[in-house]
User: What shape does this take?
Amino acid sequence: MQHVKDLMVPLEEYPRIPATASLHDAIKALEKVLLSPAKDPSRPRDRAIIVMEADGRVLGKLSLWDVLRGIEPRYGHPIEPLVMIDDYFLWTHASFAGLAEKARAIKVRELLQEHAKQEFISEDAALDLAAHQLVHGRLLSLLVTRGERIVGILRLSDAFKAVTEIIAAAEAQKAPELAKA
Assistant: This one.
């Protein structure tokens, strides 16, 4: 059985940004990650960045969802069904006129949400537990821990790739058996 530590992206290889950076800085960092050539073409692109404290502690991860929510804070509030939807979803709305200034004023620290217990997993956990947490929580990634420290990220795409490789290996083993029959 594969373990999380064999599948995760180590913290050192994951895009990072200081907690004092602006939302604008985070947007630029994510844009760079998404658009620049991949170091490892077999690995899917990262869709989040790690937010680091000056002392090296990980505060959390900032996803594409968090960036969009940061641009328009009302996304964090429930929408009343009888309220005009256009007020919430019209990106040409006047409130977006000062978007660049707004993005420079907001600090990434302000956008982080507290991570739930199920968003963490030990590096020694088995793939099946990681897959269970990802599916059950409908998560795109897990923060991988060694003791109390965050040491990496396990992405849904990493778990999916591992599962497809297990299935392919099982099919390859079964193929010679079928040929004998």
Remarks:
- The chain has a mean pLDDT of 84.
- The helical segments are 4-7, 23-35, 64-71, 86-89, 99-105, 108-111, 127-137, 156-180.
